[in-house]
Amino acid sequence: MAAGLGADLAVAAAAFVGTNIDNCVVTMALVAGAPLERAHRIAAGQVIGFAVVVAVAGAAAALLFEFSAAVVGLLGLVPLALGLRGLVGLARSRSGGADEEGTARGRRRRPLRPEQRAVGRSLTAAALVTIAAGGDNLAVYIPLFRVGGAANIGAILAVFVVGEVLVTWLVLAGGRHPKARTVMLRLGHWAVPVLLCCIGVLVMVEAGTFALL
């Protein structure tokens, strides 16, 4: 019994780590690129998004429902849309952020404030990005929830809770670290929206969604 529970814990831990590395990196980048006072909102959004993915996986396992990977991959349109919106907004800010300060100086662009550079800096946006990036995790989580009874599910959920606590701590510690924020500033305010676009495309490619289009 103990050996079986230990195996369940190990499998759940491996599943959590393997499916949350990309999400951890994305959320940390969102925190690093946003004002410090919004860090906890972004982290909370990440937690809510992961909880939604787990709840959907649990419900699907209980109902013996299977998700088409290609259809689930359509969630990749969420970070892609957020990233594209951010790029368009930044382009408009640069083109429209000019000051007239005399004929000698001509047109001069206003520097973008940190909150203008950040994309996906709200709780809702972070949750949506987490759900989109974790949509393909359903293929891993649903079989996990079907393996055994209540004890098995309890062990999986316990691992997920501990893992999510560690991820949240890592996201806040890494994203708020001065060096991380300095790197984000050096990369420029285009880094986060470009990263979101890449994540969106990657989710759809891995799910085979482009075959539907």
Task: Encode the helix/strand succession as letters.
Answer: HHHHEHEHHHHHH
Average of the residue pLDDT scores? 78
Strand content: under 5%
Q: Taking strands numbered 1, 2, ... along the chain, how are they ordered across the largest sheet?
A: 1-2
Global geometry: globular
**What is the number of independent domains?**
1
Radius of gyration (Å): 20 Å
Largest sheet: 2 strands, antiparallel
Which descriptors apply to this entry?
mainly alpha; two-stranded antiparallel ribbon; 11 helices; 213 residues; 76% helix
Describe the fold and architecture.
There is one protein chain. The chain is globular and about 60 Å long. It has 11 helices and 2 strands, in the order H-H-H-H-E-H-E-H-H-H-H-H-H. The model is unreliable at 98-109 and 111-118 (pLDDT under 50). 76% of the residues lie in helices and 3% in strands. The N and C termini lie far apart (48 Å). The chain is mainly alpha-helical and 213 residues long. The protein has helices at 2-33, 39-62, 69-72, 77-96, 102-105, 114-117, 123-134, 138-146, 150-175, 178-187, 191-207, and strands spanning 98-100, 107-109. It has one domain (2-95, 110-212).
